[in-house]
Amino acid sequence: MSEMTQTSAPRSAYEIKRLSLKQLVLKRVTSNALIVAGSITIVLILLITTFGPMVFHRDPLDLNVQDRLQGPTVQYWFGTDNYGRDLLARVMHGARVSLFVGFAVSILSTIIGYVIGMYCAYFRWFDAVMMRILDGFMAFPAILLAIALMAALGAKTSNIVIALTIVFTPYVARVVRSSALVIKEQTFVEALRSQGASSNRIIWLNIAPNVVSPAIIQATFIFADSIITEAALSFLGAGVPPPNPSWGNILFDGKTLIFNNPWMTIFPGIAIVLTVLGMNLLGDGLRDLFDPTTGQTVKRRKKK
Q: Hey, where are the domains in the chain?
């Protein structure tokens, strides 16, 4: 036993420090109830969306007129709509559209807004021009601007992604710009300039890594907002064209039958609420994780 102890190499101080840092980060993440609750909700929705259609084998476009407007039964767990289509299959396939739109819009708007925000913070001439353009986009309510863009582009899933990316990019750019302006005034940036470092090196190697956390937090909220806006567009007829399922057009089909056949609006409504709630909980948890002072300030205000 003693020989095994002597032959095994002791861990270096760097390895011990890195291991303890990983354990500390993991402990902070798992001890944050908002992150845990939001992550569990989103993971469950992703699992149901991915594997649900494989298990139930129901075509969301299959018409069964003789079974139209049936309530939840053993055969139809969520009931059927006014055309006899299985509502569970339509909700699960509609989730794929909504989650795809939310994921694509959050990624694209975050990347584009991140680049714009970084250059606006560093170059004053670029900031003076670009921020006025972004202010013009932000002057319109998000849903109205999205409807106008969809009217110009046409009702198509890819066009929804383009329209919502244009709508939400200014919000990311403003958050990144405000955070980058603080970092830009730090002493180490002035030292890099005096040593002859190029602007792009200072922006992307020294300022950008310090602005990642607010951009990630904003991306989670944009994910939730994109799902709501996509559902609103589909509900108004400017989103995913029927008969392709979307949470928005499922709600549209059930709006005239909400009192006699409420399951047509209850189940897609619950799906939207749970998805948006999960993303908002995850975003709030990440904000508290990256900036603990924010969470403490909110708690003090609640106590008062």
A: 31-54+91-303
